[in-house]
Amino acid sequence: MNPWIARHLVYPLQEFACKRPTFSYLAALEKSQWMSRRDLEALQLEKLNRLLSNAQKHCPWHARRFDSAGLGSAVRNLSVDLDGLRRLPTMSKQDARTNLSDLVWSGVPGGAHKYNTGGSSGSPLIFYFGRDRQASDAAGRMRARQWWGVAPGEREAYLWGAPVELNKTDRIKTLRDRLLNQLVLNAFAMSASRMDEYLEALLAWNPVCVYGYASSVALLAAHAEARGRAPLRLQHLKVVCTTGEPLYPHQREVIRRVFGAPVANEFGSRDIGFTAHEAPGGAMLLMSESHLLEVLDADGHPVAPGTSGEAVITGLTSHAQPFIRYRTGDIVKLSTQSDPAGRGLHRLDDVTGRQTDFVVTKDGTIMHALAVIYVLRAVEGIEQFKCIQHSPLEMEVLVVAGARWDDPAEAAIVAGLQARLGEDVRVWVRKVEDIPPELSGKHRYVVSHVKLAPELAPLIP
Q1: Which of 161, 140, 134, 162 is nearest to 152 (CA)?
Q2: Which domains does the chain have, with CATH numbers?
Q3: Residue 211 belongs to what H/E stretch?
Q4: Burial 110-145 (b: 16+ CB within 10 A, else e)
Q5: Which pTM does this prediction carry?
Q6: Which of 318, 323, 342, 414 is the most exposed place for a label (fewest CB within 10 A)?
Q7: What is the pLDDT of residues 153-187, one digit of tens each?
Q8: Backbone phi, psi, residue 399, to 5°
Q9: Helix 192-205 × helix 214-226 angle, to 10°
């Protein structure tokens, strides 16, 4: 598709049909990023009070919290400041899970749409989002791409997850992707021969931007080097954007070396949405217009910029199901410096996300851990999980069961994982009371003891 047509006709028509104000929000973001920090924070408070007001009117669980914290009157008067917000207790994933019916504003303009988290935290979550949240995510990514000279509608290649079998909806999405100049390569089926095909597809597509899971893009880059295919010489490539997990220095270097373009990492989650993105020069910039970030210590107190703490986020566009002072579990550090390009957006110095392993099938196909996680997230009644691949034919699943757990849930896990990994794979589910962290203190939710090929193994931290 001609990029001008994709950018000015196909993409806007899609967003209009879906009732998403994506392009109007993008126009606003392009202006607001140049506000002073003081003006941006005033905009955050304005959006915060609008969010709190809607939550008070339409979400009983939040309304009760406001009253208990003595904020009911301030919320009604749209006069809550940051100190007032901090009087509220933080909101956990368990709060969101157990109070769902009292959290969702079903009459939100544009409708509330059911979704679930990817489960990379080991605790899947069903939640609802609205059109404003969707527009925030899409517009935020467009703005970040434009920092790197990539306009909406230009050719992009995605190394992303895909279902086991394409249904009618998936085929429609594939057609839509091509009309929007988006080529999707399946990160859940990366055998050596398939990765050879991906390299040929990238050369033929000649994208302006490559986007994908950090570890999957690094894996493809390492494969290209092992095959003697590097550098790839993608003439129009301006940036490789990675997501979904931490991007380690050795991964960044192999991606840069093979793709011959700068690498920019993003930070976000399904429940909170697109949160921050790396800009030219290395600054990780918060999407301050859509997120109010607090960085708290273990006791829930704010830490000074330059000090690491847990990211506690209020999603300023999360009206359908408000996430207010929501504990993400991610460790971040607010920078003491500003964006060298002059944007007023808040800057992060460090983001520590969640680490997962690859899973390897008996024929050598390498799957991103989300291929397994997607199966678990679709099964109700799971409070927490951990998948342990002992061999290509053995997968153990630890489950902390919730109130909605039943015998069919276990059968669904076994069937789903066998559909991904092979019908002859032995899958056994073991219910446990809790799942402790690794000896390192980190939580890993998919662990594989199957070794990768020697030339690819260094890509695993």
Answers
A1: 140
A2: 359-459 (3.30.300.30)
A3: strand 209-213
A4: bebeebebbbbbbbbbebbbbbbbbbbbbbbbbbbb
A5: 0.80
A6: 342
A7: 999 999 987 655 445 556 666 677 777 889 999 88
A8: -135, 130
A9: 100
